[in-house]
Amino acid sequence: MKPYSIFKILVITLIGLPVLLKAQISERFTLTQNEIVFQKNAEFDELTTKDYSFTEEIGNPQLPTRIESFVVPFDAIVSGLQITSVTKQNIKGKFYIYPTQPPRPLDGSEPPAFVEPNPAVYNSSAPYPGKTAEIISDEYMHGYHIVTVKIYPVEYIPKNREIYLQDISFTINYTSSKIKSSSIIQPEKQSYKRAELAKKFIEGYVKNVSDVENFKNKDVKIINESSSLNRTESTDEQIMQLKSTSAIEELVPDYIIITNEALKPIFQALADWKTRKGVPAIIKTVEQIEPNYPGSDLPEKIRNYLKEAYGKWGADLFILLGGDVNVVPPRMVLGYHSIMRPTDLYYTTIGGTWNANNNN
Predict the structure, then answer these.
(1) Phi and psi dihedrals of 84, rounded to 5?
(2) Among 93-97, 152-156, 184-188, where is mean pLDDT lowest?
(3) Which value, in Å, is the radius of gyration of the alpha carbons in the chain?
(4) What is the biggest distance separating any 2 CA atoms in the chain, rounded to whole angstroms?
(5) Residue 353 has what DSSP assignment?
(6) Structural domains in the chain plus CATH codes
(7) Of 130-139, 174-183, 273-282, where does the model show the most confidence?
(8) Would the pLDDT of 27 be above 90?
(9) Does residue 288 have a pLDDT over 60?
(10) What sign has the CA pseudo-torsion 306, 310, 312, 313?
């Protein structure tokens, strides 16, 4: 075989392989002493800062944490977070940091008893919390791929009662691939109006705002405002045509009403008004959903319909659950004090099964 033929075979083979492009997002975070306020709480020193959360391990030192979110390419495979540098500055003095307490109930019941400092931590010379930054979620939100990082800007040496501020630099490493994951619902299309709403929300949510436009899902077909439904008020004649056909559904609805056949005529007036105002609305009844979608009960069937709607019409659909629990049954979850409570979060999420124990 001639040498150039071998080269040609090699090139063809490489072209057939998926392309993985390594990339990263770098960030630096600093908490200055001017941003910290100390106040006495009994024998303890309580450290507070503006716009920060706190460590959550009950009985351990309560220290500030910062949550920051970053947008990455929609098809990115996040490989981890790398700490590139850490510089520490000691705050003069000795501090007996207040221990984290259990959350207070919001239902007016008695607050939990005070939890004393954990001796295993407070008598230790090991730095607490012992970490600088970590990825706490890698998820899809409003049609964008979002990675959220928790940063620990304060280090405490409990036995010595010393506090250090940390100047932290880190990178989020990822590879970009055109191979679509079967676990990710890939929307087909989305209205221009909802795409812009989602973009504005994400720009106000993430740290790397300049990347939002470049990292959006470019495989979603954006339906421009060429239709009068999406641009201006529709006429009564257009509304009547749409009511007798599935034209809105074939276009891209922005608003879905879930109700039953008995209440459909009542909600039709709302759907017509929404459509007339430029927000295409459709009604889907539980009688239509129940025989046509998989699920162990009606709530799961409704959720599977909404997952299909997301796949057809994209993120940020507005969903109205039209009726009481006898019309649109709720999903019950175990809440505070082990009381079962209804949650509409079940219908607003498309990830996961909500059936971890596999007992339906």
Answers:
(1) -95, -30
(2) 184-188
(3) 27
(4) 85
(5) -
(6) 18-185 (2.60.40.3800), 221-348 (3.40.50.10390)
(7) 130-139
(8) yes
(9) yes
(10) positive
- Of 175, 143, 148, 167, give the one whose Cα is nearest residue 76: 175
Structure tokens at 50: 């503006």
Q: State the alpha helices, DSSP H only, in the chain.
A: 3-16, 119-122, 192-203, 228-231, 236-244, 247-250, 264-276, 286-289, 298-313, 345-348
Q: Quickly tell me which residue has 């075989």 as its tokens.
A: 1
Residue 9 confidence (pLDDT): 43
Positive or negative torsion for Cα 127, 131, 132, 136: negative
pLDDT of residue 7: 45
CB atoms within 10 A of CB 213: 10
Residue with tokens 């501020």, as numbered in its chain: 165
What's the rounded Cα separation, in Å, for the pair 100 and 58?
5
Q: pLDDT tens across 112-158, in order?
A: 899 999 999 999 999 999 999 999 999 999 999 999 999 999 999 99
